Amino acid sequence: MRKESFSRKVFLFFNTLFMICLVVIMVAPYLNIIAKAFNDGKDTAMGGITIFPRVFTLDNFKTLLSDKALPRAAVVSVARVICDVVLTLFVQFSAAYVFTHKDLVGRSGLLMFFMIPAYFGGGLIPRYILYSNTGLLNNFLLYFVPGCFSLYNMIIIRTFINSLPDSLPEAAKLDGASEMQILMKVIMPLSKPIMATIALWTAVGSWSDWTTTMYFFTDKKMYTLQYVLVQILKESQKIQAMISEAALRGEFIDEANIAVTSEAVKSAMILVTTLPIVMVYPFLQKYFIKGVTVGAVKD
Questions:
Q1: Is the pLDDT of residue 295 over 80?
Q2: Which residue in 39, 92, 97, 249 has a CA-CA distance of 20 to 30 Å to 260?
Q3: Percent residues over pLDDT 90 in the chain
């Protein structure tokens, strides 16, 4: 076994110390959120919460889960994520595979056509008018059909496909496979890393989005979990504002019966919305790193 030099040991020591500090900086805020989520609301308002709750309680989560619309909203959010991921992967992989063919007629013009909307958006009002005229308002399809194509993701996928050996699709063509069969049976099975990467990006964006519901949905049956949680948070903030205004007017408010605060509810909401992503990411991490590296570097 080769003996490490003194300079190498010094480097490893400071590198390890740096990585530990980096992990602490990244993890500590999330641990603080968890502590506030499980801490009594009135005690949280006093400040000084670190990474451990001082007065343990589940009232913050009870406040969130007390809304009867929450189960339906959770189902809508999960269905939205699944449909969005499946459709996005199919559309973007199909487009990326087409653009790997250098003999595609009008290839440069099509890329330019897709590139212009990526830099210049029409704005919210034209989008609302478009969705209204196409019957997408209060329609579940609105959650995943308009955003199923992304030029950036398509280029990442195309770059990954170009890194695969050319002999594989050529051999499939010699065996009589169609372009769709090559895509589904040859390209996609070899593209698990980039598929996991795009799936994770799409799932996180779809799961976290609540503005789409706010702008384009009035049917409460179509509300997503994130939008319902935002409404609960706003109600909690409104109650706190009413208490503050009453205190300024000199009116007596029995705060002993108020178990939660907006800060505590916000922490519980962050924990609820981020927990699924935190649980899924470790299973996709190895594919995610490989997919981003290969898709962004190789040409």
A1: no
A2: 249
A3: 19
If one looks up domain 58-297 in CATH, what number appears?
Answer: 1.10.3720.10
Alpha-carbon gap, residue 16 to 108, rounded angstroms: 48
Mean pLDDT for all residues in the chain: 82
Residue with tokens 């409104």: 238
- For the chain, the structural domain boundaries read 58-297
- Where helices occur in the chain by DSSP H, the ranges are 6-37, 41-45, 59-65, 70-99, 107-119, 124-133, 151-162, 167-174, 179-182, 192-208, 211-216, 225-248, 262-297
Overall pTM surpassing 0.90 (yes/no): no
- In this predicted structure, which of 15-29, 108-122, 261-275, 278-292 has the lowest mean pLDDT? 278-292
- Return d(Cα 48, Cα 266) in angstroms, integer: 17
For 261, list phi and psi in degrees, rounded to 5: -130, 165
The C-alpha atoms of residue 90 and residue 96 are separated, in whole angstroms, by 10
Residues paired with residue 56 on neighbouring β-strands, in sequence order: 39
Angle at 79 between CA 121 and CA 134, to 5 degrees: 40
Token pair for 219: 């049917």
Residue 285 near residue 147, CB atoms below 8 Å: no
Encoded amino acid at 189, one letter? P
Find the mean pLDDT for residues 239-250: 63
